[in-house]
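Hi there, hope your week has been kind to you so far. Do you reckon you could talk me through the fold, stretch by stretch? Thanks so much in advance, here it is.
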Amino acid sequence: MPMSIARALVVCANFLLYTPLLAEVELPNVFSSHMVLQRDLSVPVWGWAVAGEKVTVRFAGQVVRTTANDLGTWSVKLNPLDARDVGINLEVEGENKIVLEDVLVGDVWICSGQSNMEWQVLQSLNGKQEIESADHPGIRLFDVPGHTTAALPQSRGAGAWQVCAPETVGTFSAVGYYFGRQLLSETSVPVGLIGTNWGGTRIEPWTPPIGFRTVAELKELANKVDQFDPTVPVGRAVWETYLTNVEAWTTAARKAVRASRVPPKPVPVPGFTSGGDPTAIYNSMVQPLIPYGIRGAIWYQGESNGGEGVEYFHKMQALIGGWRQVWKQGDFPLYFYFVQLADYLQPTNDPAGGDGWSPTRQAQFKALEIPHTGMAVITDIGTAGDVHPRNKQDVGARLARWALRDVHGQAIVPSGPLYRAFEVEGDKIRLRFDHVGSGLMVGQKAGLAPTQEDSEGELARFAIAGSDKKWSWAIAVIDGGTVVVSSPDVKAPVAVRYAYSMNPAGANLYNKEGLPASPFRTDQWK
């Protein structure tokens, strides 16, 4: 290997791996007192020490030993653990000894996305009262601090675990907290919540390189990522050039200082020029958490990609698949539950719809094809003039229903009706749904109150079209577990749309569990 490439890889390794200079064993920040370890999983514990240093990890009667490798890193795995709601110590010992106190065992969830996930408990509806009652020692909170990026994957991270209490919960993710609170109240299994979020961000910078590479439709993005990835040849070449330029800059800067001249501008770091590295947030705000044992993730994002349709589905594939590959939890499912975008801005009276976020919501609906996923529908709790709905309680509770079914095995309907199929019956179309639950209904939702059945109401926001692609508002009637749609203006219907607009005000199809139906379209027309 040429010397310049070798130097580049050494520098990259220093970015990728934190190697302490002192003869002390160390841990990443995601390990701290009051943390929650993932139950039923061979739990990874890792850190740094001097090369060759003996390291011992003790927890819950287990003793695991290893030796730091030549790079000064070490890792072990604890045998799968049962849930534990009484905290005990975790000890890590090398030349020094670290004692982490009050460690629980339960389910750990990443809470990630943009501003609606970052939105704090104190900003949600009844925030003050919610904070005052947030005394839940069975919930532990870890908030990745700040908004940071990095050209290369980082390892140590920042932050510390805290016990959920009125003094700690106020600035944590409201959706995350209400999700965890629902799980704890229903199961008594401890919950660890890791908040890593950033308002206004797109999905791309949260995605690891391997995620882009595994989705054929994202080849252009994958090629861009490779420019900054030192593990592939093209990326090594970029970093070799960077190192050579840094060496030349250092020499020139020293000469300038000796001659009392202004030194040249520093060499730009690859990944932060020409549009930036698409993985820059992942490198800084997700990578340091890996491979901490987790049950899964909840995700609320999409507003910043709101002009996209099926391409957002491909990016969801990259994000979810990428996170699952880098966490490497094998047959232990990494569940991924996400929030469909809320209603926003002023409604229109165009039956064709298709405006604003409606294609993005359809892409989110399509993402349910990815195994071990779930979606919370919230087109009934948004605010026309505010992109940040304050009702985060229902968002968290609806996400939790998926976990209660999938993780805890509860016989629960996880979602409102999700369109499955249609049949043309003369001048009508019959729609079939998954998650009908105990039946379909016309519903009314107001604030935090449970959805009420409107026995005198009529279904709204259904549109129907014939082969001429001309849309008309439809008459929609519940018939058992199906909905029959028709219009006197469409004699030979071929397609239906429901709530397919930026703000589908008045959309009111629910199941009797009080959960709203997702917007959908049966057609694939442009």
